[in-house]
Amino acid sequence: MKPFKNYKNAYNFVVLSIFILPVFLLIYSCKTDKKQSETNIEKEKIEKEKVVEILTENMDFQMPDTISSGWNTFRYKNSSPQTHFFLIDKYPEGKTSEDAENFIAPVFDNAMKLIMEGKTEEGYAEFSKLPEWFNDVIFVGGSGLLSPNQVSITNLNLKQGKYIIECYVKMENGVFHTSMGMTKDLVVTNNDSGYKEPKADISINISSTDGIVINDTISSGKHTFSVYFKDQIVHENFVGHDIHLVKLEENADIDKLEHWMNWANPEGLIEPAPSHITFLGGVNDMPAGSIGYFTATLEKGKYALISEVPNALSKNMLQTFVISE
Question: What's the pTM?
Answer without folding.
Answer: 0.85
